Structures are given as C-alpha cells and as structure tokens.
Amino acid sequence: AWLFDNNGGKHSTLDLAGGGAFTLFTGLGGKAWAEAAAKVGESLGIKLQAHVIGPRQEYIDHTGDWARAREIGDSGCILTRPDQHVCWRSDAMADDPTSELTRVLSQILAR
Q1: Domains in the chain, number
Q2: pTM greater than 0.85 (yes/no)
Q3: What does the alpha-carbon distance between residue 4 and residue 26 come to, in Å, rounded to a whole number?
C-alpha cells in the first residue's frame, strides 16, 4: 500500500517493513499496539518498529490503499517479519496489547 509522509513523500509499506526488524502496522485506533511494540521489543531484545497510519500521524493514507489492503479494523494490527512477510494480525485491539504481542512474538521466535 502507498502511504504519504507529512512532507508529501510517497512510501510503500514494503519499504517501511523489514530492514532487519519486525514491523507492526496499525491505524489510529491502534496506538496502544505501537506503545506495546516499544516495550515488547526491548523486553525480548529484538528490533521491533511500529507505524501508526492515519491523519496527523507519521504516515497518512491519502489514496485509501492501506484501508483497502489491510484486512483489519482501525484498532487492529499487522506484524511483519524482518523479511517483510506478514506473520500475524489482529482484527482489533487486545485487552492487553503488551501481553498479547509478547505471547505472539515469543511463539514466533520459539522462546
């Protein structure tokens, strides 16, 4: 999906994912996922970046590409592996996003 930064620069979600890190994408209703990602990445000792997509955020979906492609609600999230493949998604916000993300990544990492 194509996204735009605040300066009008165009970015693909593929360009934002990878780079040796797990990447979490979420919408405006999923800010708690992004906060959880920072905590979980540190606690598990892995590179985990997060992008909240929406108005007045780092990346904006001007064309609706993200909304059409994401297959999750605005409070859900998509987690990609460092090789840019989707490894997990949540349709909506979890009751405890930090615990849920820790559980999921621990399972993915076989820890």
Answers
A1: 1
A2: yes
A3: 15
